[in-house]
Amino acid sequence: MTETHTFPVLPLRDSVLFPGLAMPIGAGRPSTLKAIEAALASPSKRIFVLAQRQNLDQVTTDGLYAIGTVATMSQVQRGLAGFQLVLHGEQRAAALRLFEHDGFLQAVLVDAEEVPVEHPGEPAFVALVRELRERSAELGKRSGLPEEAVQRVIAGFEEAGQFADFVAAYVETATAERQALLETLDVEARVRRVLVLVQRQLSVLEAQEEIRSKVREELGGRQREAYLREQLKAIQKELGESDEASDADELKSKLDALDLPETTRKEIDREHTRLRRIGRESMESQVIRTFLETVAELPWGKRSDDILDLARAARILDEDHYGLSEVKDRVLEFLAVRQLRDRAKSGAEATAVEPPAEKKDARSGKDPHGRPGKGPILLLVGPPGVGKTSIARSIARAMGREYVRISLGGARDEADIRGHRRTYVGAMPGRIIQGMRQVGTKNPVFLLDEIDKLGVSFQGDPASALLEVLDPAQNDSFTDHYLGVPFDLSEVLFVTTANYIQNIPAPLLDRMETVEFAGYTELEKRAIARQYLVPRQLEENGLKGEELSLTDESLSEIINGYTREAGVRQLERELGKLARKAARKIALGETSAVAAGPAEVRDLLGRPRVHPERAAKADQVGVATGMFYTPVGGDILFVEASTMRGKGDLVLTGQLGDVMKESARAAWSYARAHAAALGIDEESFERDVHVHVPAGAIPKDGPSAGVTMATALVSALSGRPARFDLAMTGEITLTGRVLPIGGLKEKVLGAVRAGITEIVLPRENEADLQDLPEEVRAKVIAYPVSELGEVLAIALRGASFREGRLLFGEDPRESGEGKPAFPH
Questions:
Q1: Which of 92, 111, 206, 440 is the most buried (most CB within 10 A)?
Q2: How far apart are CA 443 and CA 490, in angstroms?
Q3: Percent of the chain whose predicted confidence (pLDDT) is above 90
């Protein structure tokens, strides 16, 4: 029967003790200290050393391997941190049972006897052991050990198993692999496995040496190349053929040819001197060279000649865009001023013998007569798709100038505008200077698109950085952080675009001339489609003019049934879709040409997807028609008021904003304060009134629905029907005054699209009717009013307003009150 032993257990972390070897350790865990003390107290002073499966502080029986080494302890020293001792491995052993006793682990174990080699003299085994010895000696030498010491140690081992254990203890491998070698009781198998590990480590060392050699060669090659370059430079310098000198001279000649101001010239010369002094090898030389090359590529004095032919410019603008008379007039005015200035300059040159010296600037080439006028800064505001961005390119073509565009949508970093300082890695100029560098002239048309979409972040406010760019009084000395010297932007014609003017900071807005783009009428959209959109879509879809024909009725069907916008982008998409449908029919041979009337449009594009509000069919009590403005155009809305039994509360629904709710409460208070004059029974105010504005899913806000809410409330409370063929807009006060509103043109166009031609508007907005297209003014009947009584006299059936009083019983149009402003 196999003899068993019971020893305290010493767990090892990330290490394995082999028989015949010594290992110094430090022990500090309480359970380990108790195990060592128990072993020292025993007669044999032996302890069972087991490796942990994982590097954990808390040791359990499941966390230890089953096979370990019985060891004796020597050189035991106790300190404050625990024990310092040396373990001497004696014999492999296998734990039959592990258990905890008095706070430490103990093991019941049996000796694990090795399986010896049956025939140690066999040539195969002898060759195997010899190979292990030779490879181990090679590993020792590659690791930096003295050859004599390595040979002496190897010669000290006679038994193959002991030598395999010795090599396994020192070869670099994982703890799990060492444990596997400890558990390999077959000597021949253990020798074979150790040989594999030694060979693997030798391969790793060879790969490391190869990598080290390549790096050494590369570094040596670079040093040699640098040395040769220095020699070449010296030789070329002696011969006067230095490439570096020629490059620097070429850059210097470019800089000398620039038309630079005096202060800028000093800075550039200073940087060029630094470049020559520090040499090409310096890291800073590339930064300075890039800076000087950027300066050399900027248009300091290069201008494109303006084409001052007003008739040609007007023709080009009309060719490219329909309508937009205000912006076209502004461009033609600028050209007219330039034409007169040039005429005055020519006259001055013809009469002057020599201009006074103090009036000249030899560096800039400008004098009081010859300096080009400052470019205007235009802000084009309007809904999407009305031609704001494309008009800038037409302006450049009409004036004969270069054109450059940058989009500011989403820009949140001040460095986007002003650039980065050259001290930063990867510094570059801002987008303004980059645009000027790209376009190559000093007086381009520069489009800053989507200026209302600028963001603000911790990196600064780009809108504030634009204050200098877009100020005609300051931008002649705009300083980009990268350049560090002023650059003249005063001759640039800046054009900016925006959808929402309220999103532009007030100081920035104050620096620009605002040109408002209104939405197009149906007639204008038809003309734009006929002149521009249809020919473009025919060309893009490979159709000839006669292969797809559209009538005015079919264009109106597309405009009203498939688009809902102020501009024409969606209209062009629908026309493109129609052209593709026609192209498919022609390509399949189904027809040779498509004549698209309204019915064919519905067949090709499907059912209409837009259902705009239409005028009501008859008068209703408590329902008034208002007008509202959106970024995609104007439209009408209905305000519904209804009374019911209750306590006199006012209920407001329809996703109304705070301003709109306040308008409703002001109208309610006005009705209560003037109940007798309005013909409202006092008992009506003891009933609840519910005001609703469809559609309920769309948020609404603004003061301009005040008169509409007041009309609906008075109609519901007095029981008098409101006219269905009348739309109104205007803000009201608590005393009944009607205040002016914005967006009148879009609102009136929306009402006309809905089939309503009679409108009520604030008297102060009467002049805005002149902005309406001629064909709309011809059909609109407008009633300017200044107080709510006038509105009610026009809107309620049987009411009139005379001598400041609201009267009931006659139509205001029959009594002569509420005369319309249009038609004249």
A1: 92
A2: 8
A3: 5
Which tokens hold the place of 478? 């705009």
Q: What is the 3-state secondary structure (H, E, C) of 170-204?
A: HCCCCHHHHHHHHHCCEHHHHHHHHHHHHHHHHHH
User: For residue 556, which of 603, 593, 524 has the smallest C-alpha distance?
Assistant: 524
Buried b (16+ CB within 10 A) or exposed e, 702-715: bbbbbbbbbbbbbb
Q: What are the DSSP calls for 706-738, one per residue?
A: HHHHHHHHHHHHHTPEEPTTEEE--EE-TT-BE
Which pLDDT score is estimated for 403? Answer: 93
- 142 closest CA partner among 173, 112, 172, 180: 172
Q: What is the DSSP letter of 570?
A: H
Instruction: State CA 270 to chain mean position distance.
Output: 39
DSSP E strands, 383-477: 403-407, 445-449
664, 657 in Cβ contact below 8 A? no
What is the C-alpha to C-alpha distance for residues 518 and 513, in angstroms, rounded to an integer?
A: 16
- Condensed to tens digits (0 to 9), the pLDDT of residues 293-335 reads 888 888 988 888 888 888 898 899 888 888 888 888 888 888 8
- Collapsing DSSP to helix, strand or coil, 757 comes out as coil
Question: Catalytic pick from 490, 663, 704, 718?
Answer: 704
**Both tokens of residue 330?**
């502004």
Query: By the 8 A CB rule, do 320 and 390 touch?
Result: yes
CA dihedral 660, 666, 671, 673 (to 10 degrees): 170
User: For 121-166, where are the E strands, in sequence order?
Assistant: none
- Candidate list 663, 715, 747, 800, residue with the active-site label: 747
d(CA 20, CA 160): 12
Q: What is the dihedral of CA 306, 307, 310, 311, to 10 degrees?
A: -160
> Worst-scoring range by mean pLDDT, 247-256, 619-628, 702-711, 798-807?
798-807
Does 325 qualify as catalytic in the annotation? no
SS3 581: helix
The mean pLDDT value for 672-690 works out to: 79
Q: Are strands 721-722 and 805-808 parallel, antiparallel or unpaired?
A: unpaired
**Contacts by residues 274-277 (CB-CB < 8 Å, ≥ 24 positions apart):** 275/248, 276/248
Q: The tokens of 337 are what?
A: 């001023």
- Residue 42's identity, in one-letter code, is S
Report which of 699, 815, 720, 821 is spatially closest to residue 768, judged by C-alpha positions.
821
* Residue 704 a catalytic site member: yes
Cβ 87 vs Cβ 22: under 8 Å = yes
Nearest-angstrom CA–CA distance, 346 and 351: 9
Tell me how far apart the alpha carbons of residues 514 and 347 are, in angstroms, rounded to a whole number: 34
Cβ burial of 608 (10 Å; 0-12, 13-18, 19+) is middle
